[in-house]
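Q: What does the assembly look like in three dimensions?
Context provided by user:
Components: two
Sequences:
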Amino acid sequence: MTSRRSPYEIYWEILVFCKTPRSFTAIINRCDLNSKSGQEYLAFLHAKGYLVLTKDGGRSSYVATGRAGEYIALFTEMYQKLFDTIPGFRL
Amino acid sequence: MTEGTLTRFKSELNSFFILILLNLVFGALAMAFGVQYIVTSVLGLTDWQSLTLLRIVGGALSLVCFGLGIAWIISSAEIMEEISEIREEFRSRQGPVPEETLTGGIIRMIAHYREHRKTIRRMILVCTLGGICFLVLGIMNSLELISVSLTSGSFTLNSYLLIPSALLTLGIALVSLLSSYYFRNFSNSWDLRLQEADRSEYMLKKSLGIDQE
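A: Here is the predicted structure of the complete assembly.
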């Protein structure tokens, strides 16, 4: 599944899922990533300020920041345009 | 924007699902007719003298049709599985569909097309070849005798088998060629969308300062 999606599609999936705090395991399960690639994607989004790591007791979870909202909105608009601007397939 | 996009997305999903379903059915029919024509060609032989060129070519074409039928079914089944899952997800939803669910569905369709682009191109080829083979087979099985000389030519039609056999084979040939046309349409639309998605990602990268390291 991973190679079928572009990194930008995976970023979007992670950020949408992390609108509420999520553990690392929940993210990689939901976004169909392996542990190594999951760490890479999360580290990248964290470094860019789209995700923050929160600690609640002994548990760490990731949550999307306000900047993530901008990315999600722009991505959603661009991908929905694919169906608005390009003539679709019909029988 | 979401309602219109959702309607188009669902309509496209349904159209593609119906196209694949039709291909599964006609793939099975193509395979069955291939077997039937092979059996007819072999059982129709009473002695070595009845082994005409027409029969040999007919038998070989039947074998090709049988193989194409199998390829047709396998390719359709490969494409069908995930399309069916995405379609069910949207069909089973009650009430308005959230924007994120729709975008998630679009991503799944794009991912599906990226993975099955080669299979869909193979389907275009298989359907075209299948259509041509069945067209030739239908004509050949309607002919009882054909003779051609330098100055003249004649053919005799097998009147008992002509109508049902020719119509069925012609029907499969027509569906096969139409499927090829529709698969090409689908592929063209999605190739454009993939190009546009690549362009969008470039813009995302630029405007948000995201770059893969």
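Follow-up: The radius of gyration of chain B is 23 Å.
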